[in-house]
Predict the structure of Long-chain specific acyl-CoA dehydrogenase, mitochondrial.
Amino acid sequence: MATPLLRGTLRLWGGRGAPCLPLASRCYHSGGEERLETCSAKKLTDIGTRRIFSLKHDIFRESVRKFFQEEVIPYHAEWEKAGEVSRELWEKAGKQGLLGINIADRHGGIGGDLYSSAIVWEEQAYSNCTGPGFSLHSDIVMPYIANYGSEEQMKRFIPEMVAGKCIGAIAMTEPEAGSDLQGIRTNAKKDGSDWILNGSKVFVSNGWLCDVVIVVAITNREAHSSAHGISLFLVENGMKGFIKGRKLDKIGLKAQDTTEFFFEDVRLPAGALLGEENKGFYYLMQEIPQERLIISEIAVSASEFMFEETRDYVKQRKAFGKTVADLQTVQHKLAELKTSICVARAFVDSCLQLHRAKHLDLATAAMAKYWASDVQNRVAYDCLQLHGGWGYMWEYPIAKAYVDARIQTIYGGTNEIMKELIARKIIHDQ
Ligand SMILES: Cc1cc2nc3c(=O)[nH]c(=O)nc-3n(C[C@H](O)[C@H](O)[C@H](O)COP(=O)(O)OP(=O)(O)OC[C@H]3O[C@@H](n4cnc5c(N)ncnc54)[C@H](O)[C@@H]3O)c2cc1C
C-alpha cells in the first residue's frame, strides 16, 4: 500500500524484511508462550503483554501509541471545544495506515488482522481521547461495504475511507426508535430504478464530518415482520434533500461529532442500495457482534487507563502525613479494581479469539459488552472518588474518562437489551 508505515506494517505481518521502527526504548516482556497477561505485568497498559499478541503486534502498537501521543492528545482539548476533530487528523490516520486495517486488501483495505485493528481501539482508549471515530469508521461501517457491497461500491468508497478522505457513519436510531429498531419510520420507495428516501435519524456518530452514511430504512411495509422489510442505503453528503442538523450537545464524548439527519425526498440511484433489498436486518444482525466487541474492548482498555492514572495519583497525593496509597482501605480498593479489570480483560481477549475464528455469537458478544461497560463505569466511579475533589476538575484526565464511560452502557444496544439477548439464548438452549 501507499504509505511508509503501512508498507512497514505489512512487511512485519508478512514476516519479510526488517522492522520499520526502532527497537529501542520498549518495555517488552518476554515473547511467545511466555508473554505475561496484564494481571502479572507491571502496568496494565504495558506493551509486550497478552498471549493473543505477538512481537509484530507490539511493534505496531508502539507506532500507534506514538500517533495518539503526537497527533491526537495535544489537540484534543481544542477539538472538545469545536465538537469535532479536524479532517486533517483523519488523513494523517489514513497515511499512517490506521484505517481499514482488518478489511481485506482485495476489497481495498489494508489486509491486516483483527488484533491489529484492536490495537488501534485500545491505544485510542489509553490516550483518553474519544473524539476520533476511527473504530466506527473502520470496523463498523467499512465491513458492511466490504461484506455486502457491490464491486463498484467497494471501489468507490473503501480506498478513500482507508486514506481518511471519506469518513463513514451509520444511522439506525431515530427520535422514536432506538432499542426497538423494527419501529423505525425512515423509508425508501421505488421510483423507476431509483429510490426516494424520507425520514430522520438521530445520535449519528461521525455524523457532522461524514461523507457517506449507511442509512437503515423500511423498503417493504407489507413484510410479515418489519425485520423482513428493512434495507440499507449508502447516502452521500451533498445529495439533494440530505440535511445534517445540529451537532448534539452531549455530557461527554465532547470532541465526537454526533449529529441528527433529515431526509427530504432524497433521490438515490439503484447503486445506493447496499446488498439485497429487504435483507438489511439480517446484515445488521451479522455485523452487530463486532460492534459490541469493539465497545467491550474499549471499555476494558479505558478501565486499564483509569486504573493506571489513579495508581499514579494516590501514590503521590498526601493525606494525614502519608500518601493516600499508604491507606489500607485505598489499597484494598485498588486490589478490587485491578481484579475486576483483569477478569474482564481475560473474557474480552477470549472473545477476540472467538471472533477471529468467526465463532463469536450474538449472546456472547452481548455478555462482553454488558459486563465490560459495567466494569468501566464502576472503575470510573471509584477512580474519580480516589482523586477526591481534583477528580471532579476537567483538567484531570479521570474527569473526562468518567463522563465518557457513561455512554458505553447505552449505545451499541443498551445493557438491558444485552441481558434480553443473553436470557433468550439461555431459555432456547434448554
Ligand atoms: C453518543 C451517542 C452515539 C450514538 N451513536 C449512534 C450511531 O452512530 N448510530 C446509531 O444508529 N445510533 C447511535 N446511538 C444511538 C444508541 O444506539 C441508542 O441511543 C440506544 O440503542 C438506545 O436507544 P434509545 O436512546 O432510543 O433508548 P430507548 O430504546 O428509548 O430506551 C430507553 C430505556 O428503556 C430500556 N429498554 C428499552 N427496551 C427494553 C426492553 N425490551 N427491555 C428492557 N429495557 C428496555 C433501555 O434499556 C433504556 O434504559 C448513539 C447514541 C448516543 C447517545
Remarks:
- The chain has a mean pLDDT of 93.
- Strands lie at 168-171, 187-191, 194-204, 212-218, 230-236, 242-247, 259-268, 273-274, 318-319, 322-323.
- The CA atoms of residues 220 and 229 lie 4 Å apart.
- The first strand starts at residue 168 and ends at 171.
